């Protein structure tokens, strides 16, 4: 069935294939060379088995994508169609020459036919739905709230058009084979094609033309993406597999929880004796590791991270998506200089002429410098418009480290790690950071806490307890099960001290033997590390490890137990201190209290007729996956009515205090804590509950402001789950549990039993 038409189309297809393969080979080689200019990172190599398992689960199972179910399902069909139907492209090369061609070996195998039919139809329907969602969520409709704001829309349209065209061609070719009598496969094995064949002509030549169109469109796509190495919406189809395989954690978990130690040339920096050529943080694009550069390359511009980012959602210039896009575009623009193909001039150009571009105006308001030129070679990684910076300082310092971006990214980009590495350079090398954060750092170094109060005040809360609180003086006696790490907020902040006293009272009631360090405790170092001052963190962590090792002297692993009320301390002590030799079993107070309730050692007896909504602290929830224990505690209290906020658990919305933002002014856009409090108040709760001292401070401040403006009822209060549990432990009828003064006015009323809120709703 080969005629002149087939010969012409077949010859063109073969020649085009050669050209496309050459372009693709050169593109992949260039991309690999560029990524290899990054610093080494040997932590990504193994173990192979678990990494391959993670790759299979995340890619074939689409576990990350299916968090957004409809979009995830549509993308799964497009994904399976791209790889699973690759053989249809091979078959098309034969069909151009001979419309009756079938793949060798596979031939007209019924299962293959059924697979191609179903997945081909799924690909077309899937891409149509994704096109619909892109238009529905387009910036022209939603403005800044669109997750596609700042994305390269033209490139997205191009990829969508190619997928739709190729998918349609697959179905048309199969339908034409049926209508032209070129297949003997049973009808059940090609249900979609059979239906389509009823409206198609008997035309083998048309089949060859459609096969040719399929080939040309597919190869044109390959040539285009080969010429645009920063086209992440296309290249992620290949690089995502490598990015997922080489993700930070070989157990498949996302890159949250502990920050990684500062490294230079692939090795941790020894702060006591750093090398002369050690690179502190990331001050230039080439300072990133090869995995960082692979991250930048893999960004799909889908905007999931952006849609979840609390900074972006409250009018800040930070978009995690655009941070990665800016770094990617700069990397590939500067590549000729990194590879030695071009040499930069000795002096930097004048950046004063820069104006915001249409793309960048969404974010920090200054233009991307287009193309490969001398300006790219001299640009500072972090800098203002006038300085020609790739990332604006306001972008860098808006991050709360909440981890929403990392949690939602379908290709495992490690946004938080990259932002923190850039902060490290700004703090340690440039000494360029918000001034108010500098006060916090000096307080940490001089007084051991962010507030700068005397260490002796750490023991003041103990004076209010009506039982003896044991102090750790040397190695703990073996009858002491837990060291209670109170934390700076828990010992200093008035609101957090009430939580400390509530937890201590509950542990005492349950018969749990514990001790505290008192004035011997210092900050865990989390604020310093999250701000970017790794040196101060290392200093404080090593000091604390020495103290803790002394307290746990003689104890074997499994008996070195610490309980803390602060998720930031919980994360540092349990997951970051092993980096400096501190191995402990650290639990959050909600985990321990939930266990005590389950064991019957704590029994809530007083019904509390309140409506409660629970706010997930980022460093307890997303960073450490502790979602259930706080909710189990609330469920154990009779009379409580609980209702989840729309943004909860792994989609929880930050309070605004993480990433050392607790000690920085929020000058741009809407305050994050106000946004979160408004969401909670939208449920008309009596209590906004949480399990973090920072969250209590941020939510309480916003709630107070709302009350002053008449936007919140006076009875609404912010309480830690431990305070609610303690309130329910009071015997029924105990004086003060029904009426009384405003919560928080009495130091010994840590459960708020004397709050006016306890009488809310009563006749």
TrEMBL record:
The chain crosses the membrane at residues 6-28, 68-90, 110-132, 206-229. Residues 290-320, 387-419 form the 4Fe-4S ferredoxin-type domain. GO terms for cellular component: plasma membrane. InterPro entries: 4Fe4S_Fe-S-bd, 4Fe4S_Fe_S_CS, Cys_rich_dom, HdrC_iron-sulfur_subunit, Helical_ferredxn, NarG-like_sf. Keywords: 4Fe-4S, Iron, Iron-sulfur, Membrane, Metal-binding, Oxidoreductase, Transmembrane, Transmembrane helix. Residues 731-763 are annotated as: Disordered. GO terms for molecular function: 4 iron, 4 sulfur cluster binding; metal ion binding; oxidoreductase activity. PROSITE patterns: 4FE4S_FER_1, 4FE4S_FER_2. This is Fe-S oxidoreductase.
